[in-house]
Amino acid sequence: MPASSIESLIERVYVEQVRSLYLHLLPAIAMWAAFAITFWLAYSRAPEPGWLVLGGAGLAASALRIGITLYYRDLALTGPLDRTQARRLEMLFSMPYFLFAVLLGIFGLLVFRSPAPEIHMLTICVIVGFCAGTATNCGLRPRLAIASILVSVGPPILVSAFRPDPAYLAMAFIATSFVLGGTRWIMVRYTAAKAEIGGRLVSISLARRDTLTTLPNRLALQEYFDERAALISPNQPIAIHYLDLDGFKPVNDRYGHAAGDALLLAVADRLRSAIRSGDLVARLGGDEFAIIQFGLHHADEAALLARRIGATIRQPFDIEGQTIGISASIGTIVSHDRNQKLDSLLRAADARLYEVKQARGPSDMLALTA
């Protein structure tokens, strides 16, 4: 595999790993509630100002994490991301997440230094729940996951290890064993998931690509649609563009199929350049192509892309020393129903394409030029 392809694959794997951070929201809300209950019970037994500041800071950090996840979730899961954008999203997620882990560890330290066994029990439940959630939800970013686990459970382990009580000594030993086993599991899962993501992306790149243009084929288009449609918010629009080439058949008739194939390759390159990184263009067969747009903020963005594609295809092509001019007819639909099937959307876009052709008429099609 060429070096550029390897670098591209590494970047795409990293982007998918960052997307996973924003996948689950409910555990964060549950952790906020569990920490709030435990903090309030602890503070009610020892109403010290320092505890109040610590609990408020922990709740604020947890709420900030929830807010960031809500605000950036659609972008993270369905938007076009390069490595720089993914890195920014990872940092935005990691800062409040790790801060909460630190505050939780300090909270656990103070609780285990106080003579309140019932609060010790609640606190260790919250910490164990946080560590389990971290291993599950952040396991694809192991540095964040392992660091968060260590700073949250480490202080209570240290306090327990120095208490002259066999039960606390046993808890410190068991918790340490769990931490060591958990970090090992995170690294194993990370390695396996990284290989799985890479293999899946390579599979899509090879087995699910059109043999001539190397664009995704219909199967890849379906898989991409199913994966992304399940993640977007219910009100976010999806745009489907169905297009075919006007004047393509005369190219085959006049210059032969080799020139026609070369023209399709050139069209595919222009379509790749016209779309955003998070959109997908696929060849359906012959001179027919489809484009899926996710991450739209306004329906007008679909019309803008359609105009850009039309202008791009109208530019003359230099094929085997011949200047060839063609155009594209594009049928575009925008759906706000993420439960619609791709086949239904493609049929609707194809019907719209037919209407566009009928409205333009044969005389409006860009003719072949020599």
Automatic annotation (TrEMBL):
Q: What is this protein called?
A: GGDEF domain-containing protein
Superkingdom classification of source: Bacteria
Cleavable signal peptide: none
Question: For the GGDEF domain, which residue ranges apply?
Answer: 236-370
Q: Which Pfam families match?
A: GGDEF
The UniProt transmembrane annotation reads 21-43, 49-72, 92-113, 119-137, 144-162, 168-187
Q: Which UniProt keywords apply?
A: Membrane, Transmembrane, Transmembrane helix
Q: Which PANTHER family match?
A: DIGUANYLATE CYCLASE DGCT-RELATED, GGDEF DOMAIN-CONTAINING PROTEIN
Report whether Transmembrane shows up as a keyword of the record.
yes
